[in-house]
What does this fold into?
Amino acid sequence: MAKRSATVLLLLVTALVSVTAGGLSEAKSNDVVTLQFFHRWPMEPRFSYFNEVVAEFERLNPDIRIEMDMVENESYKEKIRVLISSNDMPDVFTSWSDSFALNLARSGRVRSLNAILERNPEFAQSFIQSQLEPFTFDGITYGLPLTIDGKVLVYNLSMWQEAGIAQEPRTFDELITVLDRLKSAGHETPILEGLANPWAISHFLGTLFQRYIPADVLARDYNEATGEFTHPGYRTAIEYFMQLVGYMGPSATSLTHTEVRNLFIAGRLPMMYMQFAEFGFVHADPSSPAYGFFNFPGICGGHGDFSLLTGAPEGLMMSETSRYPEEAERFVKFLLSQENAAKFVEQVGAPVAVVGAVREENSYPTLMQATEMIKSSSGSVPWLDNAMNIRVADAFMRGVQSVASGDMTIDQVLNSVQAAARMVRAEASQK
Amino acid sequence: MKSSCRGSSLEPLLFTLPCIVMLGVFVYLPLIQNFYFSLYSFSAFSPNKLFIGLENYRLLVDDPVVRTALINNVRYAVISVLIQVCFGLVLAAILEDKSFKRVGPFFRTVFFMPVLMSISVVCLLFGFIYHPIDGLLNQFLEIVGLPFLQRPWLGSARTAIWATIAVSQWHSTGYIMMLFLVSIQKIPEELYEACELDGAHKITRFRVVTLPHVKEIFFVASVITVTGSFMVFSEPYILTRGGGPGTSSITMAVYLYQSGFFRDMMGYASTLAIVIFVISVVLAVFQAMVFRTGKE
Amino acid sequence: MRTAILPVLLSHRRVRNPLSAAQVVLFLCLCIGFVMIAYPMFWIIMSSLKTSREITTEIWSLPTTPLWRNYVIAWRSGISQYFLNSMIVTISTILGVIVVASLAGYGLSRYRMLWTNLVLIPIMGGMMLNPQVCLIPLYRILTNLGIRNTLLALIVPYIAFRLPMHTLIIRSFFLAIPREIEESALMDGCTGFQIYGHIFVPMSRPILVTSAILTSYYAWNEFMFALIFIDSNRYRTIPAGLMNFRDALQVDYGPLLAGMVISALPIMIFFISVQKYFVRGLLAGSVKG
It folds into this structure.
C-alpha cells in the first residue's frame, strides 16, 4: 500500500502544480499572445470601463489575449515596484508621474517611448503636451498620460448662497472668512477631510508647502540626497493646515476620504478638497447638489506661485523586457485612442490627457471647466507622497495625523521628519 | 526499542522527510535569515543589500514607535487575559451550572459564533459600529440618552487602541470560554454533589471544585491569549488603517509590516521580527515552566 | 429576535423551580451578552439587503424591500473569485497537512530511535514560533522560488506552519494505538508504508478529521500572509479580497455587507455542524501549544 500514499502525494503535487500553472484559465493556443496588464483601478466605474475596452481590444485583435490585473491605490504603489524588479513584470502597467515615474524608470526596466513617439507624430501630438513632461526625464519619455488631474476646493452652491457667500476666496485669510461665515450659518463642520487616510493629509500638505515655501528650498528638500527639512516654513504650513483642521470637527480623524466625499454628495457637507477625477462620482448621483470649485488660495507672505494646481497625470508604461513589444504598443495605442479616451470621459466622468476627448456631448460643464483649468494653469504640483521619499512623506503624514488627533506637537513631527530625512540622506550618499 | 530493529533504517527517515524539509525551508531557514537580514539595509524591489552592522538595532532602541507598539501589545495582553480568560471562565462556569442546563447550550453556541467569523469580516463589521457619524455605537448612545459619551472611537488617540482591543474581545472570548466549558464538563459530577451536601454556596463550589480542576487549562489559556496578543495584526491594520491616528494604535506586527512593505526598510523590519521572536521565546519558556508545574 | 426568545427561555425555568434573585440577574446578564454578540451579526444580514442610503440613514430599521441584487453584485464583482481561491487554498492546505503530518506522526511514533527524539525538538519549537517572525525572509524565499503571487505562496507556508501542531496531535494519537495490531501485520509481511496506509490511517479517522477541520479554520481565515504574498486580485483569498472589495466599492455598502455574509455564513454553518470535532481540535491544539 505504499502505492496508495504515493498516489495521494502525487495527486497533491499535481493539484498544486495545476494551481500555479493557472489551472483556472482555459488552454491557450500557440499563436495567441498573452499580454499582462496591471492597473490600479479595481473600483467602479473604471473597473467596468477597462473590462469593456479590453474585451473590445481582444475582439479586434484575436491574436492577443489581455490578462488584466488590478489592486487599489495604496497597495499598487508597493506592488508595482516589487513586480518591476521581478521576472513577471507586466507588459503594460499604469504609473503616477514625477518622482514615482522616475523611480520606476531608474530600474532600467521601463521602455523608452521616444522611438514610438517619433515614428507616430500624429499620436505624439494627440496628448496635451504639458502632460508628457512629468513622464520625461533627461529627454526620455517613459510614460504616456492617460488621465490628468487637479485638486481643488469644491463647495455646495446652495449652502454658500444661503450663507451669503458671493465670492470665491483668493487668499487663505479669505478662505477662513468663508469658513467662519458657513459656521455661523449653522454648519458645524464647514469643511471636512478624511484624515484617517494619510494620503489625504499629504495632499493638503503638498499644496501648503508649495504655496508657502520658496521653490528652491522645496527642490533641495524633496531630493533624497540633500533633504533636510529645516526651513521654518514647514512649521507655518502645518499650522495653516491645523487651522483648517480646527473647522473639521472631532470625527475627521476617523473618517476616510471616500466617506467624506459621500457626505458631500449627499448634501451634508458645504466644502471639501477634491480631485477632478472624483467629479464623476458626484455627477453619477442624480440627487447630488450643484457645486462650484476653485484652486487652493495663496497665502499672504508665501513664496510659492499661487496659480499652480496640485495634481499630476497618471499614465501607461511598457516593460523594456516584454516578449511582445509590438503587441504591447498596439494595446497602449488602443487605450489612448481618441475614441477610447472619449469613452473613458463618458463612462468615468474624469478628465483625460488626449486632446479633444473631453467634449460637450460626452461630459458635463464642471468637467469641461476642470479641463480648461488644467490646460490654463501655469504648472502642476506633484502629490506629496510621490514627490519625496516615502519614509519622509510617511513621517509627515502620520505625524500630522497625530497632531490632528491631539497626540503630538508640530515640533515633534518636524523632529521625526528631519530624522527620517537624515537616514534617507545617509543611504542616498552610500549608494 | 523493539521495533527499531525491523525494516531498513531508511524507511523511518522517508516518513519524516517531507515534514523536515518543509519546516526547514519555510520555517527555520527564514528564522535564521532574519538575523542576517537585520544587519543590512535593503528594499523589497532591489537585489542589492547594504551592510550596516548593528545600525538597525541602534535605531530600534531609539525608536519611539517601537515603544508605543510594545505598550499596545502589552495592553492587548492584559485586557485579553482579564476578559477572555477570567471572564471566559466565569461565563463557562455559569453556562455549565445546573440551573442553566436548559439554556446553556443555546448561549454557548451563540457566544462561540464570532470565533467562526473571519477576522477581516469582524473588523469590517466594527468599522460600521464605530463610524463616527452613522455608526451603531454612537447612534445607540444617542437613543439611550447618553450623547455625551459619543466619540470618534477610532479617530482619537485616546480611544483608538481600546476600541481596537474591544474588537478582539468580542471575537475571541467565546473561544476561551469553549476551552473552559470542555474542561469543566470533565469534572466528575460527584465532586459537585459532595459539595452540595455540605451545603456549600455556589461561589464556594466554584472556588473549591471548579478552579483547581481548570487550573492547568487556565494557564494554557492565559499563554494562548498572551501569545496571541503579541501577534495582533488584522485589527489595527484594518480598523485604524495601520495603527492610526498617528501611531497611537500600532502593534509590533503592523509596524513590522509597514516598515518592510510601506516604508521600504526590509532590514529594519527583520530587526523588529527579532524582537517579536525574542518575546515569543520568552513566552514559550514560561509556558514550558508552567507545564512542568501543571504536571506535578 | 430578542423578545421572541426571552419569554420562552424564562418559561422553561419557571416550570421547574422558583428563580433566585442571583439567577435572574445572571440570566439578564447572559441576555445582554446575547444581544451584544447576536445583534451585530443579525445587523450584517439585515443591512446586506438594504440600499446604501438606508444603511447610513436608517441603520436600525429592517429593509423596506429586501434587495437581493446586492448579493448578485457582490458575487459578480469579485467575491466568486475570492471564494474559489479560498476553496482551493483551504483544500490543498488540508491535504498537505494531513498527508505530511500523518506520515511524520507515524515515523515519529513507530520508530523510536535517538534521531526521532532529535526531530521532535524542531517540531515542538515550530509550534511556538510566531509566523510573523519569518515574514520578510519568507517573502524573499517565495519570490526566489517564483511562486510569490500564486496560490502556492499561501498553500506552502500554510502547510509548513500548521505541520508542527498537527504532527504532534496525530503522533500522540498514533502512540495510543496498541502495538499488537502493528506486530500482527508485520507477521503477515506488511511493510511500514502498508501498515501506515492500511491500519493507522483508517483507525485514526476521527483525529484526521479533527485536524482537517482545524486546518480549514486556519486556512480560510488567515489574513497577513494572504495580504502580503499575493499581489493580484485574481489570486486573493476571501480575507484579503474583502479589503480590496471595500476599496473597490467605495460608496456601495450593500454589496460589501452582502460579500461579508457570503464569506462568513457558509463556513460558520459548516463549523457549527461539525462543532464536536472542532471543539475537540481546539482543545487538542491548545493543550499541546
About this structure: Chain B has 13 helices and two strands.
